[in-house]
Automatic annotation (TrEMBL), chains A, B, C, D:
Residue ranges occupied by any HTH tetR-type domain in the UniProt entry: 23-83
Organism: Actinoplanes teichomyceticus
Keyword Cell membrane attributed: no
DNA-binding region per Swiss-Prot/TrEMBL record: 46-65
Record GO terms (molecular function): DNA-binding transcription factor activity; transcription cis-regulatory region binding
Keyword set, alphabetical order: DNA-binding, Transcription, Transcription regulation
The name this protein goes by in its record: TetR family transcriptional regulator
Amino acid sequence: MMVAMGRSRTKPAPSAPVTARGRRTRDALVAAGRELLETRGWPGFTPEQVAQAAGVSYGTFYTYFESKDDLLRTVVRMVAEEMFAESRVAPDTAGDPYARIVAANRGYLRAWRNASRVLRLVERGADSDDTLRRLLLEVRELYVHRGAEGLRRLQEAGLADPGLDPRMTAIVLGAMVEQMAHVIYALREPLEEEAVVEHMSKLWAAAIGLRAQA
Amino acid sequence: MMVAMGRSRTKPAPSAPVTARGRRTRDALVAAGRELLETRGWPGFTPEQVAQAAGVSYGTFYTYFESKDDLLRTVVRMVAEEMFAESRVAPDTAGDPYARIVAANRGYLRAWRNASRVLRLVERGADSDDTLRRLLLEVRELYVHRGAEGLRRLQEAGLADPGLDPRMTAIVLGAMVEQMAHVIYALREPLEEEAVVEHMSKLWAAAIGLRAQA
Amino acid sequence: MMVAMGRSRTKPAPSAPVTARGRRTRDALVAAGRELLETRGWPGFTPEQVAQAAGVSYGTFYTYFESKDDLLRTVVRMVAEEMFAESRVAPDTAGDPYARIVAANRGYLRAWRNASRVLRLVERGADSDDTLRRLLLEVRELYVHRGAEGLRRLQEAGLADPGLDPRMTAIVLGAMVEQMAHVIYALREPLEEEAVVEHMSKLWAAAIGLRAQA
Amino acid sequence: MMVAMGRSRTKPAPSAPVTARGRRTRDALVAAGRELLETRGWPGFTPEQVAQAAGVSYGTFYTYFESKDDLLRTVVRMVAEEMFAESRVAPDTAGDPYARIVAANRGYLRAWRNASRVLRLVERGADSDDTLRRLLLEVRELYVHRGAEGLRRLQEAGLADPGLDPRMTAIVLGAMVEQMAHVIYALREPLEEEAVVEHMSKLWAAAIGLRAQA
DNA sequence: GATGAATGAGTGTTCATTCAT
DNA sequence: TATGAATGAACACTCATTCAT
């Protein structure tokens, strides 16, 4: 445009690719973005570097994403969903509530260690970006909901303190596990992962007044 | 940039000011930096804005600090020292154990909300800076130590589960409180502060198997 | 900044330079901006080229101007004021109203030809930029006001049709002259400048019912 | 870019469509281009948005047009031709001369407001494109010619000042009306359309020394 | 010591145009 | 002929740091 002033109101929002080729390119960009975020942190996460890592030209980035933040949100959602799915407790522990708690905590810690340098980075951004903050709250809600449901079932089975509010309890105990992951993997407090899992689980069980199955 | 630590020392490192005036200027810069970090977070923490808030000219910033990170480390050190100092007079002495837990949790949450937004920011944002990471671990250690000692006394008095490792327990339950502060104040999950304090305390007490005083 | 998201609310607005050196630099940027606009039009008017033409580095541009538009507005104001000053009718025609009209029209046409490729360019931008549009209206108002006052004096002296609304008349006849400048210099309709001046003046005089001085 | 005319002809210039379908597509693009120019001005006039508005895919644009400028020229030519066509049936024939002037001015102002925002945009914005400049001069000539003929008839009938050069007068008074349209519709000077029509007509009549019909 | 001007590499984004299918 | 993905130079702007006075 010859004239620099005046913004167009109608910036065409990138839509989902319709051809297989487009899908491949978009996937490559998402993968490259995630990879860079995990290996190089914020400094590596620029549209230019992402495009280059995906093997496409700079402009192509904006064929699929409205902005850098758009890609970030996409990556975060993907990582969060993966993590949530991974941390689902294997059904073979169905009978033993304590074993389930241990498995859940171990699973969470491992999922965090493996997949979520992304989430750690993002927590920082959330301080100044509202969309990101809400996205993190959404992700948290998944865990909170699952934890609350688990507790409710235990209460109904007479295996846990019926006086505890399920949601609040899930939030607080979830926070415990989340921060431990942060302490171990980000701050690198020198602790044995398995020892932490056991201890957390013991405290968790005691906190909810878990009784051995009748 | 925080990641760019460990430069080769080719430029004159600013030395401590020798005149009273110099000291005042430096103090003003540190205070302004802390203030900005607490009130505006990372986006407000630029040399230019710090200098302006301190009422000195832009260039003066570099008379006293090698870099932006240099000031950041200085501010963090100051906040950490303050927390050390405060912790010495902790009213940890006597009375009803449960009430003490409630008071400690309430106090911790409030300290976190007010004075140490700085630490929260740094904890989530400075993951590549080793100096800061270690400083954070030191501050944590302070609280862990105090928590562990408290638990040990309870155990010795026969008021808490003697099977728990005091240090590990303090770490895990401390993490719970710390993360709840993050959830409430940074992510702004809509929760009543006092309700959280009560719930956390109840879970904490149950977790350590707290018994009412004989 | 490591984090890309979140805009700072406090962008320091560039203030007027306080030292002589600063004033020189700022003046050089304004001059270069005007020069480029006049010689190369919009395509040459980029912060980078302006800075280069002024012999300073890129970043310096933003030491003195909030944005490209900021400089543009500055240049427009300057050109407009210059033009308005230039087109003031020499006082030696005080006695003869018709001679004054001729002089004013000739002056306007010349001022436009010399100084205001800038204004022509800007008229285009005004279509999509509100600030610019208002700036142009302000400039117009200067001329309109002067024209209206002139007519009022003639009416009071009984030398012009007293039934004409001075302001509206000034607007309409001013539009006539302005567009003729555009037609001659921008569209390059092949017309003799002096012939146009004479004809415009004759029509202008007839339109306001100018009577020879008693 | 408009300034980039006269490329070396190394790529296949799009030829006129041969199938009916091709013609429909091309027409849709032209119509969409015109529509966007009229409703959104320059910012809306991008190949992408034009294609989208025409309901065809992006790439198709370049099946029919060599460039964005190619479409612009096509649209301008179309608008110009329309104006030529309309001018042929101008109701210029008889009646009260003053009423005719009023009607002509009102009509011109309205035409300008509606159909030829395109021309207004181009007149102020396309100063480096020779093709367009000449096209604009041609359109102007049409109106000038008509105006001059009208004046000549009035002079022959003894109803207007016989000392005026018809062509020059038509140019100057035409400029007056044209610029008023610009002032009202582009710069949005707050004036009543009908009041402007009346005033312009009064000044016009006085300027040519119009005498009431014998 | 203090000032404020100067620096310039880096960032996110746009968009007219080309290309493979 | 039609599609939509791909291209990349260009642009406006930021900001930690350095420098001349």
